[in-house]
Amino acid sequence: QGEIKAKHCDILPGVPPVRSCFVSLKSVDGTTHTIRVKAPTLFVAAAAAVAAFRQEQWAAEALTPNATLRVEVQMPPIVHEVSLRTLERWMQSPSASPREEMGKRQMGKR
Predict the structure, then answer these.
(1) DSSP code of residue 93
(2) Phi and psi at residue 94, in whole multiples of 5°?
(3) What is the crossing angle of helices 42-55 and 84-92, to 10°?
């Protein structure tokens, strides 16, 4: 499993900490692809994983419009599922904060 670190600002009060996450994606044939990323938010983790999956031929084929990403946050473990369509809408939407905008820009450069 690979690892990608999402770049982030200095830790500020009220800002979520960077957490280790496992992000999984299931192919049409049932194969599950998983990568470990570090990110401060669910959507930054999902975007970092999508960027990595797109670089891997095996996983890139699973990134269909109806794909769902499974995000397992460590310490404490929390699991989220985000559809690729929802993630792409988030990437295109106005950012709620400068930190979120920075995360979107960093993921867009991959």
Answers:
(1) S
(2) -60, 140
(3) 110
Angstrom distance (rounded) from CA 87 to CA 25: 13
Query: Locate tokens 């891997």: which residue?
Result: 56
* 80: its two tokens: 């989220």
From first to last of the 110 residues of the chain, give the pLDDT tens digit.
444 444 433 445 666 788 999 999 998 888 999 999 999 999 999 999 999 999 988 888 889 988 999 999 987 778 889 999 999 999 999 998 888 888 888 777 54
d(CA 48, CA 40): 11
Q: Helices 98-108 and 42-55 sit at what angle, rounded to 10 degrees?
A: 10
Residue whose token pair is 């800002």:
15
